[in-house]
Design brief:
The chain is an alpha/beta fold. The chain contains ten helices and eight strands. The chain has an eight-stranded parallel beta sheet, sandwiched between helices.
Length: 354
């Protein structure tokens, strides 16, 4: 298995300022751990420096007026909203991070790798004409559009961030060729407040938007139960040409923004299961975009775990520095009830759930 990992030193300019949970040192700290772990010495692993995405790349997803607005705000250093600042250096970093996923896509398309990792990616709260939640442009969708330009007819997007991917889901809500599957903390308890089971897509896209809202306290075992009940069967029936997944370390038990209880080892199992699914359904073609995470102590090991799982590495040393909290007694039952409800709701559209 050959893999490309895209990273640029300037990613650290995506720093939303002192006191903001999204700081630029995440990239530097994560890369330091990756190097210590010998990630780039693994056979078949290529570290590449991306070129920035262009305005044309942004326009494959976003409205022209919205792109112009973000460029204008960035030039003047005016925030998009109270938690999503803009500046020339943030914009430069955003374009490089998007460029990371496009570079991975190009190398896979050229036959130089099967697997890709775009470090820092996954700005899933940005829609066609809006940003928010620290996100300016939706790199997940920009990647999907590039994959389609290279001939992918069906793309499966698996979102394993703790927050629902409202931007990505919105962009593809009426599209039957992009299957969006989100595993996130119950949006009744967390930003962005959408991503419930009945949101199944619309028009031709009805049945192609799958939300699995997990109760606070969901731990590794229950999460992996939900993932394995939903992702492999859907992937086998949908037969994507490519799988994209996004999400960083914010589902970790020590991350203050969410209330899921995933461990670093859990992250490894999540992306390994996705990678194994990709092996079975789309010749292993899979790009991971790990970017979120708001506890700097657990972010590097969690991102490492996600990447190692996506690359199919099993001989890895992954340990949390803190013990995980105790399992909540009713959590497995509640997760099973969510999965049953997802299957009942999607049954009319998917044979695998009948
Ligand atoms: Zn998040």
């Amino acid at each position: 298995m050959r893999a490309v990992i895209a990273y640029h030193e300037k990613f650290k300019q995506y720093d939303l300022g002192p006191g903001h949970p999204y700081r630029g040192d995440r990239f530097v700290n994560a890369m330091r751990l990756f190097r210590e772990k010998g990630l780039f010495e693994r056979p078949g692993v290529m570290l590449v420096e991306p070129k920035p995405a262009t305005k044309e790349d942004l326009l494959t997803v976003h409205d022209e007026d919205y792109v112009k607005l973000i460029f204008r705000l960035s030039e003047r250093g005016i925030p998009y909203d109270w938690e999503t600042p803009c500046s020339p250096s943030i914009l430069e970093a955003a374009l490089l991070i998007i460029g990371g996923s496009l570079t991975a896509c190009e190398l896979i398309h050229a036959g130089e790798a099967e697997r890709g990792v775009a470090v820092g990616g996954g700005f899933h709260h940005a829609g066609r004409n809006y940003g928010g939640g620290f996100c300016l442009f939706n790199d997940v969708a920009i990647l999907v559009e590039r994959l389609r330009r290279h001939g992918a007819k069906r793309v499966m997007v698996i979102d394993h961030d703790v927050h629902a991917g409202n931007g990505t889901s919105d962009i593809y809500y009426r599209d039957p060729n992009v299957l969006y599957v989100g595993f996130h903390q119950d949006p009744a308890t967390l930003y962005p407040g959408v991503g419930f089971i009945p949101e199944i897509g619309d028009g031709e896209g009805e049945g192609y938007n799958v939300n699995v809202p997990l109760p606070p306290g969901t731990d590794d075992d229950s999460y992996l139960y939900a993932l394995s009940e939903v992702v492999p069967p859907l992937a086998e029936e949908f037969k994507p040409d490519f799988i994209v997944s996004n999400g960083g370390s914010d589902p970790h038990f020590a991350d203050a923004l969410g209330s899921l209880q995933i461990t670093a080892r859990g992250f490894h199992k999540i992306t390994r299961l996705i990678a194994q699914t990709a092996e079975r359904v789309c010749h292993g073609r899979y790009i991971l975009l790990p970017g979120s995470g708001y506890n700097p102590d657990v972010l590097p090991i969690s991102w490492y775990a996600l990447i190692a799982g996506a690359l199919g590495l099993s001989d890895v040393d992954i340990k949390d520095s803190l013990p995980p909290p105790p399992t909540r007694p009713d959590v497995r039952k509640r997760v099973k009830a969510v999965v049953d409800e997802v299957k009942r709701t999607l049954k009319p559209y998917w044979r695998c759930f009948q």
